[in-house]
Amino acid sequence: MNVALESFVKTHADHFVQHRRRMLMTIEKIINPLLAEVKKIDAKFDFELIGPNSFYVVKSPTHVEVLLIFQGIDPEEISIEDGQTPAGFSLARLTGKRMVSRWKFCSGNSNPSKVYLSAKIVKEKLFELVKRVVNDEPNEHEGKANIAVNEAGDDDTISLLVSGHDAEPFSLDLVPAIPCPGRWVFSAHAWKSKPADWVNRKLKEELIRSGIHLVARPSPRKSGYQWQIDFPGPMRKLLELDMGCRTKCLLILEIIMENMQPCKERCDSFQLETLVMCVTEKFPIKSFWSDEKLTNRFLDIMKELQRCLSERSLSHIFLPNVNLFRDVDKLALDSWEEGVQKVLKDPEIFLNTFELFKYTTSL
């Protein structure tokens, strides 16, 4: 089956990868001028410009989430109160006088002796600024692209709808995030303290130094003050490690899962990366991922995905109590599982007869 896998990559990977690259270039052209205008209106909302090293999650070929990394918030003046319910969320208490003075307008009705930064209010204020910029100059930020603010959504997501000439529209979610370099959280202590296997001690220390991000994704509890704990920096560094055919396995997995699912909700790029990381922990030595073992590792990944879908559970690498399938619709999980079963029924025939979805978006 190695031949079928290599042929699959040769046939489909270039188109898939080029689409992703065009997607990021288009997003960069759209978002950076918008962020510059937002900063002109309110200098507190100062974000890093989008570039090749930005953090994003591909939800589907026409839906992308991009993290907007704050530059106007000092993480040294934030106390991260971990151990919240549900797992994977925390409170951000403002501790410095400057931060309290600057951001109290985003703290709502919290206790005056303990000022907590509200993720919900931060998003609402940013949403207002984004709408103002887009509505004032709707077509200024990308030559032929039409940009509109998506007012729908129950979770206050800042979403833009982008369309262009002869192109299928796509949606772009903007999620504010506070970088906290050098900070770790108690709920991730198990990963920090467990014996090193494929991650040596020096690398683990480097990952911990890169820290976490507090991300303004909606909390299942609907709490406006909770921030999701995220590890985009450490995750990227782990994925960039040279582990033989692992990168190729992930690429094949992404192509298959993005193209074969009939339901609207897709298995996103972060979930698939997490799955591959889980399999890496089972096969932590690089020789287990040699090109000769491509078939074995690919099948291991697909079987692990089948198991996770049947159990409705995929554990976060750094936060083992967080289930990444927790909020996924049951019909979507059933559809994904059915697709994986088709692959495993006869992998070679599936790979040889696979047809890549031809993207028509302006991405």
Kindly name the structural category.
Answer: alpha+beta
Number of strands: 10
Helix content: 40-55%
Radius of gyration equals 21 Å
SSE series: HEEEEHEHEEEHHEEHHHHHH
Shape: globular
User: Taking all residues together, what is the mean pLDDT?
Assistant: 89
Biggest sheet character: 10 strands, mixed
Gap between N and C termini: 33 Å
How much strand content do the residues show? Answer: 15-25%
Low-pLDDT segments:
359-363
**Oligomerization category of the chains in this entry:** single chain
How many H/I helical runs? Answer: 11
Describe this protein's structure.
With 363 residues, the protein is α+β, with helices and mostly antiparallel strands. Helix content is 43%, strand content 15%. The protein contains 11 helices and 10 strands. The protein has helices spanning 2-41, 97-103, 119-136, 189-193, 201-210, 232-239, 246-259, 269-282, 294-311, 330-345, 347-353; strands at 56-60, 63-69, 78-81, 89-94, 115-116, 146-150, 158-163, 170-180, 212-215, 226-230. Strands 1, 2, 3, 4, 5, 6, 7, 8, 9 and 10 form a 10-stranded mixed sheet that branches. The longest helix is centred in the N-terminal third of the chain and has 40 residues, at 2-41. The radius of gyration is 21 Å and the shape is globular. Mean pLDDT is 89; it is low at 359-363.
